């Protein structure tokens, strides 16, 4: 093969040949000097580089073998990364300048309050989710995050208003609207009191050990306890709550009145340690702003089923 043919079939000529067939035919038949061949090679290389770069963001310069950038100076991948960084910067700006002040306060408080940090969990950074978690915490356990003893240091008032032990309400005025936790604790106390009364626990006819001394082994007459006249509660309603008032209807049946003393002893500790009670009223048809028939939870009504 001649020198001309060898130069023609060199890879650098391919773009030039494919784009100009007439020039290719002339090259095959015309003798050329080395200088002319060098000039044509430079022209062909420049033409191939320009044609390749027109349709590609990243292309290779065939004459040099190095990567060449388009006229804009950026690649497609670089522009994508730039867009991602810009979007991230905008989100960070919005978080710093449009972030609710109360959410920032909660985040700062979490640094020193392990209980609050446990309540918020993985919601930190998401104000809407933080708000829902705090509302759930307040609804179920009350509003005070720090206070471990939730009762009252004051004793409650006790009064009677035409109390009929066979058909009457017992009213309880609390210091505030009870949480779900408070309702559960308070209702459990009333339920335990009723169960003991139902099983005959409040029977003054069989108090054999009440006045006995424990310095010596006391004697208990099981036969006497078995034959004593039964004494038990008859019935009770669910414990109802409207705002800061609560009530329960009772039929104490044949139980003795010291069952009321037992209830008040329980409520005394309950009020001082857990749920503050302002007053307890035995009897009466309506107390405070209680509304008959209002059983909608949206209006502050709650109940504990016994």
Q: Any descriptors?
A:
306 residues; alpha+beta; Alpha-Beta Plaits; seven-stranded mixed sheet; two-stranded antiparallel sheet; 9 strands; disordered N terminus
| Nearest-integer average pLDDT | 78
In terms of per-residue confidence, which ranges show pLDDT below 50 for 5 or more consecutive residues? 1-19, 50-70
What percentage of the residues does DSSP assign to strands (E)? Answer: 5-15%
Oligomer: single chain
Pfam families: DUF3531
InterPro entries: DUF3531
Can you give a write-up of this model?
It contains eleven helices and nine strands. The protein is an alpha+beta fold and 306 residues long. The protein has three domains: 3-69, no CATH class; 76-141, no CATH class; 157-205 and 221-304, Alpha-Beta Plaits. The strands form two sheets. Strands 3, 4, 5, 6, 7, 8 and 9 form a seven-stranded mixed sheet that branches. Mean pLDDT is 78; it is low at 1-19 and 50-70.
């Amino acid at each position: 093969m001649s020198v001309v043919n060898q130069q023609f079939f060199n890879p650098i000529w391919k773009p030039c040949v494919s784009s100009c067939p007439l020039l290719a035919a002339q090259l095959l038949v015309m003798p050329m000097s080395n200088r002319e061949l060098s000039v044509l090679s430079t022209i062909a290389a420049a033409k191939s580089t320009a044609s390749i770069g027109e349709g590609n963001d990243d292309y290779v310069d065939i004459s040099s073998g190095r990567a060449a950038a388009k006229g804009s100076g950026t690649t497609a991948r670089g522009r994508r990364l730039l867009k991602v960084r810009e979007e991230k910067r905008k989100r960070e700006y919005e978080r710093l300048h449009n972030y609710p002040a109360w959410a920032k306060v909660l985040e700062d408080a979490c640094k020193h309050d392990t209980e609050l940090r446990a309540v918020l969990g993985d919601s930190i950074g998401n104000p809407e989710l933080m708000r829902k978690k705090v509302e759930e915490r307040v609804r179920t356990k009350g509003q005070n995050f720090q206070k471990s003893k939730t009762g009252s240091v004051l004793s409650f008032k006790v009064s009677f208003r035409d109390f009929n032990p066979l058909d009457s309400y017992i009213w309880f005025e609390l210091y505030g609207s009870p949480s779900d936790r408070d309702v559960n604790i308070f209702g459990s106390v009333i339920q335990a009191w009723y169960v003991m009364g139902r099983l005959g626990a409040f029977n003054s006819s069989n108090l054999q050990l009440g006045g006995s001394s424990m310095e010596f082994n006391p004697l208990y007459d099981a036969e006497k306890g078995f034959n004593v006249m039964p004494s038990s509660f008859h019935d009770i309603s669910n414990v109802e709550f409207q705002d800061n008032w609560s009530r329960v209807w009772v039929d104490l049946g044949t139980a003795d009145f010291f069952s009321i003393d037992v209830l008040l002893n329980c409520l005394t500790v309950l009020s001082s340690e857990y749920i503050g009670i302002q007053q307890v009223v035995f009897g009466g048809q309506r107390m405070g702003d209680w509304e008959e028939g209002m059983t909608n939870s949206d209006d502050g009504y709650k109940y504990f089923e016994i």
